[in-house]
Amino acid sequence: MIEFSLLTALLAGLLGGVHCVGMCGGIVAAFSFRADGSTPPFRLHLAYNLGRVSSYTLFGALAGALGGSLKLAGFLPVQTLLYLLAQAVMILLGLYLAGFNRWVLVFERAGGALWERVKPLFQKLLPVRSLPQALLAGMAWGWLPCGLVYSVLVSALAAGSATSGAALMLAFGLGTLPNLLGMGLFARQIQPFMQRLWVRRAAGLAVAGFGVWGLLRLAYSAWSGA
């Protein structure tokens, strides 16, 4: 199911842009101006986002390694249980993006303490004046507590290995690129569209649909193997 999970993560990142625009809009705005007040070139925004995606990939590797260690420790049903949990969280995430619940904000509150430790480092990197500085700022940005990121991390936990977990979060991070990279360059044009109710509802229900489809695949696999 790894190919399906990678596609799901990629599309979750892409469709989750309705959340990214609201969650990261302030940070993107801070990145959009240099000390002299001019807008930084495309390569700086790309460096910010590559740094952010690299942090996501690291998180995925750690989560996948943890899930794999639980499996190797002899917890036989752990892979199936983690997969079920991942699909359930995906459904809740989709409903959150659509505006029907706020359950995934629990994840954001849980990560707040960690962000408070990273935030001073992040602030010291602003304003950004070079590509290495932009890359480091982007890596720090990746630690911002985000229910969308944490929800997908559950799927990385279920991936069963560091490599699979890293690949899944890399796919998710690449899915977020069009929205956040575009937000940095065309904020005024993109933000109003992404905040429309029908866009949020359609994107959220599509993400929830991935979770439902994952559960159906698991049920079919269990039924056909019985």
UniProtKB/TrEMBL annotation:
Matching InterPro entries: UreH-like_TM_dom
Regions that span the bilayer: 80-99, 134-159, 165-186, 198-220
Domain Urease accessory protein UreH-like transmembrane: start-end pairs: 8-213
Signal sequence interval, chain numbering: none
Pfam families with a match to the protein in the record: DsbD_2 (PF13386)
Alphabetized UniProt keyword annotations: Membrane, Transmembrane, Transmembrane helix
Protein name (Swiss-Prot/TrEMBL): Sulfite exporter TauE/SafE family protein
Organism: Thiobacillus sedimenti
